[in-house]
Every structure is written in C-alpha cells, then in structure tokens.
Write a sequence for this structure.
C-alpha cells in the first residue's frame, strides 16, 4: 500500500509541477515584487574570484563557524552538473544564505534572501566543473559566518 | 602437495596413533585444522558475515596482496599491513594455514599444501556448524556477491541469489548487485527474496525527492535481545561504476542520515546495532570515529581479510570495525554477550574456509550443479596454460592483469593499455590450464566493452592522477576502494604521499618521456559512460580468450609496476 501512496504522491507532484510550487510560494507571500527582483546583485554573480564575490556581497570578514552552520554536500559528486547542497543554520535573525564554489568561473552559485521568521534551511543544486571547495555563507544579525567543504569531481571508473 | 579432507584426517590419525610429530607443512595443516573450526559460543547475540564473494561458488585459490600501501594516518595500520607485518600485528604464526589464508607469503607452496579455499558447498557446511552452536544467529551478506563469474553474469545473478537463499542469508546490502540494473535488484527484493532475506541500505535515495529505495535497516529479536542491522551500500556506485544502470538513484556516505537512523533504532529499543557496510575499511574506520551508537561495522568492499576487529573510539563509546576478505575465503563470526540490555563482552573470529577441511554440503552442491549445467561446456574450454602464478590483487598490476593488458595491446594494436584496478579475480598456480571460466573470473561485468581511444599525454596523466587519488587520498572519504588502474606499455613513477596532480611522474613509453601534447592510442575496457556503451566494443573476455588461444602457453614475467617514491619502510608492501 505504501508504495502506491508514494507513487501517487510522486505523480501528483510531477503533474502539479512548478505551477503548484509557484502557487504555494505565492500564497505564502514568499515571491517578492518586481522591486525586490530588481535587487539582483549582478556584480556578485559575475565575480570571477572569491574576493570579488565577497566584496560585491558586502561581506567584511566572515567568521568560520562549523558549529553554527551545517553544510551537507557529497564528498565525491555523483554528477558534477547537479551537485546537491544543503545549508542549515540555527543562528538567530538569518537574512541571507549564499553558496559559493571557489573554482567555478562565476564563484557565487546561489544567494537566498531569508525573510524574517523563516527557518534557516535551503537546499539546491550547483554545477561544478572540477574538484573545489563549496562555501556556505550565512548573514545573520548583520554578521557573516562561513563554512567550507571540499567536493571532489572525478572522471569515475576503475572502482571495486 | 594437495590433500583432500580424508587424507588430512588420515595423516592426523597416523600421527596421533604413532605418537610422532610430522615435521612438515602437512602436520602444521593438520593440527591447525583440528582447532580452526572449533569455536565455542561466547554470547547470546551472534552474527555470521560474508562479503565480496564475487560469485565464486566453487573453491579457488586467492592470493592476498603483497602490496597494500597505507598513506597519511593509515600508514602502518590495518588494513594496510601485508606479509609478516600483518602476521606480527595479529599474532599469527608464520608457516601455518592461518598465515596462508591472510597473506601472500610463500604462496605457491602453501597453496599446494593447504589446497583451495572457499566454495559455497564448503561454506554451507561451516555456516550450518556455526548455526548449530548459536541458535538464532543471523547470516549477513555485505554485497558484491551476485557478480564475478561467467555463470552469475549470464544468469543475471540468479545462481548467487538462489545460493544465498540456500546458505540462509538473512540480510544483505549491495554494490555490483546494482550493476544488473535497478529493476533487477528491486524485482529480486520484492519477489524471490521477499520474506526470506532483507535488502537494506540507508544511503540509497531517489534522485528526485530523496525517497528511500530500500529499507534502511531491519530489526530482529535474537534470544530475547532486540538487534538492528543497518545497511550501507557502496557509496560510490554511480561514480566507480556506470551511472546508467541506476539512473534514478543517489548514493553517498551520508553520515548525518546514518546517525539519525542509529538514533531511531536505539529509540525503538535495539540493544545491539550493527552496520552492514560496503564502504571499504578505511571509510568504515573514519565513519566509526564520527558516528555514535554502533556496536560494530561489519565491512567489505576493500577485500581486506583482517583477523581481528579494530576498536574505534567515538563520542558514544567504542565501535568494532571488521572486514571479511573476499572470494568466499572467509566467514566472520561475531558474538556479543548481552546482559540486562548491555553488551558485556564480545568475541570475533574470521574463519578461513579451507575446502579440504570442510565437507561439501550435498544440497548446495546439487544447486550449484543445476546452475552450472547450461554453461558447463563454455566455461570449461581450455584456452591456454600458464607457466607461472597468475593473480590480480595488489595496489598495482598483478600477473593476470598483465595478461589482459598484453592481450589488449596486441589485439587492438595499441602501445598503451589500461585495465581497471578491481580487487576481485582469482589466482592460478603455475602449470594450470587457463579456462574460459578463469578469464571470466577476472572480467565478468555488465559493461565489458573493450575500447580504443586516442589520448594526449596530458589526458593519460590525468587518468592516472584521478585513479591515484581515489586510492591514495589521505582522507578515506575521498577513496573509492579498488586499486590503481593497471597500465600496459607505459612506465611511470608513483609518489603516493604527493598531492593529486603530482603523484604520477616520469611517464615513459619505450624509454621516451610521454609528450603532453602528442596523441597516443590507448586500449582499455570497462568504460563507465553511456557513449561508450552505445558504441559497443568486443567484450573483453572474447578478446582475451582469442589472445590466449593463440598464445597457448602464457609465460609469466614480472608485471609492469611503477617505481615507488617515498614508500620505503611502509608495512603495506613486502
């Protein structure tokens, strides 16, 4: 029975697709107005180096904090084109969570604006061309915190 | 000399009756035999553990590595000990049956003296014997059981599935089992195995929603004690092997998920929690230091026959880490004594399966014969004879790899060849016939395509560096198990302690340094990409068989192994 339920949920989600999600976000007021979208930080997303990206984000000196931020990434990517990244943090007053990949052509991969009172948890996928450090950058209470983990991108084969 | 069980017993009887001591290998063997399988029960919770049999239903020879280098913190530590260093670490007397089982020392003579190892009919007898003294004991299979022989390949693992049911496997996890395709293992789980064997893996999820693909764990009650067995499939199944066989599944070590699974089974009342793991021993040792609440990790994948468990401290206490070898050579037996909900003591023994010392179980024998019959004539074809020892296991080329590489270079007319660093593949003694079965024991995979590729010197270096890092990365979580890619034609120097990109040095072809920009023809097999699958390519076993039929006699020379830098004194080589 459980398998059928799962299958139905799967079908429903697939059929509903992005429209459903859009409606959900819209309903919760998470999708912001055109004015907010215009705040796209072009300089940060175009930055070619870690320093430039951090500068464009307005980061002064982020504090290393493996205790305040939990970054979940695979040790070795199964597919460099879609590397799952989760960032969770229990810091108070989180405003922003960003993901940076230090060896990508554009270092800043994603940046999330976290509305007041929202749980500090995001999950996304990033593209990686080679072995690199993935950095989670969290802005909370006006301060920046970071944690990094290496993700290996390998040609594969020859195991076993 | 080879002896069967009856001869062994006769020698023992004569020696005892005559009151004299036979001063030969045989007397050692006979006295070892009388003690080896006498294993009194030492607790109320018992697990038997097999792993990585690689479909070897029949007795075989398997030479343990003479080189298994440990780098960084792993240097000089189990499992990176070979030969006398391993014997010394685990207190095994040289020149004994045990020493033969766990090392490559004096391999040819010892193999002749002690005979073949493994074989499911002999293993079945041992399992029955252990079960008889341990009511309620569970038999766990760590995976890489359904793959590794021609018969298993052609029957889609059906022979092994039925042999495992006959053996009485209660719980399994997986690696190469998935390389028959996602559908095959699910169909077996929901069909023939249903209600008889649990397939567990906490770390296999669907790509889309992250839903579990298998049960993460199973809970059982053993003599009134609730126990949990959590499964850990090979984390790098979609990286080390073709992703297209399991396109919708995602693997990985998934430490956090493991911890929450342990917490869950503890909350449900499990008093003994074990992880049935296909991580590989280095990964298991690191994992044991980082998660809490596991009593033992029964491990496989890296084929390390480790005589005693390695205790690893973590914030919750101590976790025992074992690895039970490969090719059906060993049965691990772990006893826990549990009193008032707490483990008070444990006892572990990794028993070598000497085929001459254990009678063949009749019903397993019948099952094996039934599955072999359709393939008998094809498997028993004699292709050539070998004048020396053929083996694979070791960090770099084994002599059987060399045969495959020579075949590839000749048949594909290429100056360079690559062959995967698999750790399965049985051994043949000098003077043996090489049959089609023997070739398939080195090559039987579901992606056997032989390839011919134009590669620049720089690309060749990248491949060697990439595989070298899978083997020698100082952080075990970045290792994939398996050994260094086997290399034909090309000579090189390897510095395992160097960083990725700097380990492979001085690559030479016919004495000339490889040119980074020049293009070379490289023959190979076992490609993981879909493009290579679609292109086809002759199965490697047909190519090697043709080569062997032409050669008739294989003259075994020293395999093409790299010069090593910075490894002198490493206890992982003889």
């Amino acid at each position: 029975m459980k398998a059928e339920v799962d299958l139905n949920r799967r079908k429903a989600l697939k059929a509903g697709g992005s429209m459903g999600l859009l409606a959900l976000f819209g309903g919760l007021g998470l999708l912001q107005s055109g004015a907010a979208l215009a705040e796209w930080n072009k300089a940060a997303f175009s930055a070619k180096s870690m320093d430039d990206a951090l500068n464009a984000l307005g980061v002064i000196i982020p504090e290393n904090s493996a205790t305040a931020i939990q970054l979940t990434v695979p040790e070795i990517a199964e597919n460099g084109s879609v590397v799952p990244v989760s960032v969770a943090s229990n810091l108070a007053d989180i405003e922003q969570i960003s993901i940076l990949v230090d060896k990508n052509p554009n270092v800043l991969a994603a940046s999330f604006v976290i509305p007041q009172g929202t749980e500090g948890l995001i999950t996304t996928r990033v593209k990686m061309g080679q072995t690199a450090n993935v950095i989670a950058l969290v802005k909370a209470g006006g301060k920046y915190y970071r944690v990094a983990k290496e993700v290996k991108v390998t040609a594969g084969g020859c195991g076993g | 000399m080879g002896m069967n069980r009856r001869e062994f017993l006769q020698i023992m009887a004569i020696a005892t009756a005559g009151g004299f001591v036979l001063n030969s290998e045989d007397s050692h063997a006979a006295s070892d035999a009388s003690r080896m399988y006498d294993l009194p029960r030492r607790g109320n919770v018992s697990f038997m553990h097999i792993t990585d049999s690689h479909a070897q239903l029949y007795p075989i020879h398997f030479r343990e590595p003479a080189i298994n280098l440990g780098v960084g913190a792993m240097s000089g530590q189990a499992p990176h000990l070979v030969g006398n260093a391993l014997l010394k670490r685990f207190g095994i007397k040289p020149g004994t049956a045990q020493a033969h089982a766990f090392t490559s020392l004096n391999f040819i003579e010892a193999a002749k003296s002690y005979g073949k190892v493994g074989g499911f009919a002999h293993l079945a007898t041992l399992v029955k014997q252990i079960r008889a003294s341990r009511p309620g004991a569970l038999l766990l299979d760590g995976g890489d059981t359904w793959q590794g022989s021609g018969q298993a390949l052609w029957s889609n693992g059906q022979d092994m599935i039925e042999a495992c049911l006959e053996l009485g496997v209660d719980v399994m996890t997986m690696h190469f089992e998935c390389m028959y395709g996602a559908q095959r293992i699910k169909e077996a789980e929901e069909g023939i195995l249903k209600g008889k064997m649990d397939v567990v893996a906490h770390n296999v999820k669907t790509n889309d929603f992250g839903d579990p693909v298998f049960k993460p764990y199973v809970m059982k009650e053993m003599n009134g004690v609730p126990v949990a067995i959590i499964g850990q499939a090979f984390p790098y199944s979609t990286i080390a092997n073709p992703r297209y066989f399991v396109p919708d599944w995602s693997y990985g070590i998934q430490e956090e998920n493991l911890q929450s699974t342990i917490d869950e089974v503890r909350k449900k009342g499990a008093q003994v929690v074990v992880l049935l793991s296909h991580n590989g021993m280095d990964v298991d040792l690191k994992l044991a230091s980082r998660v809490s609440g596991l009593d033992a990790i029964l491990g496989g994948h890296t084929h390390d026959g480790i005589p005693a468990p390695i205790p690893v401290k973590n914030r919750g206490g101590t976790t025992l880490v074992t690895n039970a070898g490969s090719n059906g050579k060993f049965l691990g037996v772990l006893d826990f004594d549990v009193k008032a909900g707490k483990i008070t003591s444990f006892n572990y023994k990794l028993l070598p399966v000497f085929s001459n010392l254990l009678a063949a179980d009749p019903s397993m024998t019948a099952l094996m014969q039934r599955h072999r019959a359709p393939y008998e004539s094809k498997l028993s074809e004699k292709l050539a004879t070998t004048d020396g020892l053929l083996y694979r296991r070791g960090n770099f080329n084994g002599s059987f790899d060399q045969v495959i590489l020579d075949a590839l270079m000749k048949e594909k007319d290429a100056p360079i060849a690559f062959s995967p660093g698999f750790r399965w593949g049985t051994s043949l003694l000098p003077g043996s016939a090489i049959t089609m079965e023997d070739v398939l024991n080195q090559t039987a995979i579901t992606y056997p395509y032989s390839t011919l590729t134009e590669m620049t010197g720089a690309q060749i270096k990248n491949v060697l560096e990439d595989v070298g890092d899978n083997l020698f990365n100082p952080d075990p979580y970045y290792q994939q198990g398996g050994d260094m890619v086997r290399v034909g034609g090309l000579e090189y120097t390897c510095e395992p302690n160097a960083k990725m990109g700097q380990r492979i040095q001085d690559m030479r072809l016919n004495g000339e340094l490889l040119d980074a920009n020049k293009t070379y023809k490289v023959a190979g097999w076992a490609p993981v990409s879909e493009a290579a699958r679609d292109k086809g390519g002759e199965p490697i076993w047909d190519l090697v068989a043709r080569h062997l039929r032409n050669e008739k006699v294989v003259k075994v020379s020293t395999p093409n192994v790299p010069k090593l830098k910075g490894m002198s004194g490493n206890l992982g080589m003889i």
Notes: The two ends of chain A are 36 Å apart (CA to CA). Chain A has a mean pLDDT of 80. Strands of chain A lie at 63-64, 69-72, 83-89, 94-101, 108-113, 121-126, 132-140, 143-151. The first helix of chain A runs from residue 2 to 28.
